[in-house]
Specification:
The protein is of the alpha/beta class. Helices cover 38% and strands 18% of the residues. About 10% of the residues have low confidence.
C-alpha cells in the first residue's frame, strides 16, 4: 500500500504483485461502455456482501497499518486512520464528507475521537442502514428529526448517494452544503471518473479545506505482461476500472487547484499483514 500526501490530499495504495491470487476473475470492466454496468455491479456487491465483510473485517472495511507489527487487526485499521489524520493535520471539530463510507467505521472514529461532524455517503442502501445501526449501538444518540447521530463531541449521518453526483447534489438549493474536509479511503479506485471526483471535491471544500485520500495504486512503468498477470485480476476481482499510479492522482489533483501538504508515502510493507 502506498500513501500519497495531501493535495491537500493524503493518498494510499496497494501494490498488487503479491495478492492477485486472492481475487476471482470476472469480465474486465475496462471500457467506458461498461462503466454504468460496473457501477451497478458494485452497488449489488455491497448490498449483498456488507454483512459478510462486517463479520470478516469488523467495522472498518479497509486495510490495517501494522506499525508496530504486533498490533491486532482492529488496532491496525484504526492506526491507518490516525496516520492519515497525522499526515493531513486535520483539525478537530471539523465538518467531513466521508466518501465511500462503507458501514461507517471511519466516520464514527472521526466523530468520537476527533470531534468531527461527519456525513458519510455510500452507493449502498444496505450500508447506510448498517452504518446507522452500528453508530447507535456504539453509544450514539439519534436525532430522528435531523437523522444525525451524536457521538462524543462529534456526530455522524449517512446518505445513500452515488459519489460521482456529489458535486451537483451538495450545491443544489436547500441541499447545498460545504465541508472542511473530504475524506475517501480505499474507494476512489472504484470510480471511473477520477478527474470528476477531484473536481467535485474542490467544489465542495471550504476555503483552505483538506482532501484526504487513501487508495490502491499500481506501480509505475509496468510492462503489459505484468499488468495482465498481476493487475488485471485485482481490477476484475475487486470491481475496479483500470488502476492509476500515485502520480496520476497527484496530477489530477493539481490540475483542479490542490496543493500537496504532505509528500506521497509508500506503506505497502506495513499494510500487507492485513491479508
Amino acid at each position: 500500500m502506498a500513501t500519497e500526501g495531501p493535495e491537500r490530499p493524503v493518498q494510499s495504495s496497494n501494490h498488487s504483485t503479491d495478492i492477485s491470487a486472492h481475487y476471482p476473475l470476472s469480465p474486465p470492466p475496462s471500457t467506458p461502455s461498461t462503466f454504468s454496468t460496473l457501477k451497478e455491479r458494485i452497488r449489488h456487491h455491497y448490498e449483498l456482501a456488507s454483512s459478510y465483510y462486517y463479520s470478516l473485517w469488523g467495522e472498518h472495511i479497509h486495510h490495517g497499518y501494522f506499525d508496530p507489527p504486533t498490533l491486532t487487526k482492529e488496532d491496525a485499521q484504526r492506526n491507518l486512520i490516525t496516520l492519515l489524520l497525522r499526515l493531513s493535520a486535520l483539525p478537530k471539530h471539523t465538518s467531513v464528507l466521508d466518501v465511500g463510507c462503507g458501514i461507517g467505521g471511519t466516520s464514527r472514529y472521526l466523530a468520537k475521537e476527533h470531534g468531527c461532524h461527519v456525513l458519510g455517503i455510500t452507493i449502498s442502501g444496505t450500508q447506510v442502514s448498517m452504518a446507522t445501526r452500528l453508530s447507535v449501538e456504539a453509544g450514539g444518540t439519534l436525532d430522528t428529526n435531523k437523522n444525525v447521530i451524536k457521538l462524543g463531541e462529534g456526530s455522524v449521518r449517512f446518505l445513500e448517494l452515488d459519489a460521482e453526483t456529489m458535486g451537483e447534489y451538495f450545491t443544489t438549493g436547500s441541499l447545498a452544503e460545504s465541508f472542511d474536509a473530504v475524506w475517501i479511503s480505499e474507494a476512489l479506485s472504484h470510480l471511473p471518473g477520477k478527474k470528476l471526483f477531484f473536481e467535485n471535491a474542490a467544489r465542495l471544500l471550504n476555503p483552505d479545506g483538506t482532501l484526504v485520500v487513501a487508495d490502491w495504486f499500481k506501480a509505475k512503468d509496468l510492462q503489459e505482461a505484468q499488468i495482465e498477470a498481476d493487475i488485471r485480476p485485482i481490477e476484475d476481482g475487486m470491481l475496479l476500472p483500470p488502476l492509476c499510479t500515485q502520480l496520476d492522482y497527484v496530477t489530477l489533483a493539481k490540475s483542479v487547484g490542490f496543493e500537496n501538504i504532505a509528500e506521497p508515502m509508500d506503506i505497502s510493507e506495513k499494510v500487507k499483514q492485513t491479508w
